[in-house]
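Query structure, 117 tokens:
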């Protein structure tokens, strides 16, 4: 006589799924929140709010714009994850980030030299 097994697999999956969900949520929120502080989008929102005198409308417009760009990023990210091998994507991402860094440093150096001359 065996003891009937409970549905422990679904209980295990529920407890395992909740941890990664909150970890991913907190990591995503923290990363995006810190990246957005003081960037040009926040400064543009600040200026638009100050000029228009309609902060609620500016907030709604800015929130919808950020949601739209985030949705676009998620959809493109999902497409990339399904169509490119992870290693290739990592290499391509690294090359793009290095290229952007080199470009920005070069532009900063050029502007610095213009000021000194």
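Result returned for the query:
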């Amino acid at each position: 006589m065996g003891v009937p097994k409970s549905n422990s697999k679904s209980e295990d999956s529920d407890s395992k799924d909740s941890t990664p969900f909150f970890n991913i949520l907190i990591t995503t929120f923290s990363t995006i929140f810190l990246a957005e502080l003081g960037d040009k989008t926040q400064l543009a929102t600040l200026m638009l709010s100050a000029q228009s005198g309609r902060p609620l409308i500016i907030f709604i417009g800015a929130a919808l714009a950020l949601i739209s760009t985030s949705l676009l990023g998620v959809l493109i990210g999902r497409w990339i994850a399904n169509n490119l091998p992870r290693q290739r994507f990592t290499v391509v991402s690294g090359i793009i980030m290095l290229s952007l860094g080199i470009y920005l440093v070069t532009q900063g150096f050029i502007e610095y030299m213009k000021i000194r001359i």
